[in-house]
Design brief:
Layout lengths: L1 H21 L20 E2 L5 E8 L5 E10 L5 E5 L4 E7 L2 E5 L2 E3 L6 E4 L4 E6 L5 E10 L1
Antiparallel strand pairs: 1-2, 2-3, 3-10, 4-9, 5-8, 5-10, 6-7, 6-9
Length: 141
């Protein structure tokens, strides 16, 4: 008799868990948001070009790290950017001239150059598309 009660209790528990599982609400899948063409949108800046912050952190007690892109239209006009802190700049894409502290550089995509704090960066886009440079900026706290 004890065995019959144990089997019956086991079957009842299994039936109850199956019924409870069957009654769980089904979640309706939510569509993922459509990806945007650019993760961080460019905004007009004082240089006459555009800029956007890709990454910024101030976890260190001594300095802040900022990665910022600057884009310049294909207008063959000089655009000036001055960073308040030291940085490294890379040519991401486009064709043109880059001068740092009035010293003209021969930069190809992927080339990197150091920029002292306060040194003017002059960019002239001589191509047909946007010219983009990326700056890795290190700000002291």
């Amino acid at each position: 008799m004890h065995r019959v009660i144990t089997v019956a209790a086991s079957l009842a528990a299994r039936a109850a868990s199956t019924a409870a599982f069957a009654q769980e609400p089904q979640l309706t899948p939510v569509p993922a948001p459509a990806p945007t063409a650019i993760g961080h949108q460019f905004q007009p800046d004082l240089s006459g070009g555009f800029s956007r912050t890709i990454f910024a952190t101030d976890e260190s007690p001594d300095f802040k790290v900022i990665i910022r892109d600057f884009a310049f239209p294909p207008d063959k006009q000089p655009h000036n950017v001055t960073l308040s802190s030291g940085a490294f700049v890379d040519l991401i894409g486009g064709e043109g001239e880059i001068s740092i502290a009035k010293k003209r550089l021969q930069m190809t995509p992927g080339a990197r150059s150091a920029v002292p704090a306060g040194a003017p960066i002059e960019v002239v886009n001589k191509g047909e598309r946007l010219m983009v440079i990326r700056a890795l900026i290190l700000e002291a706290k």
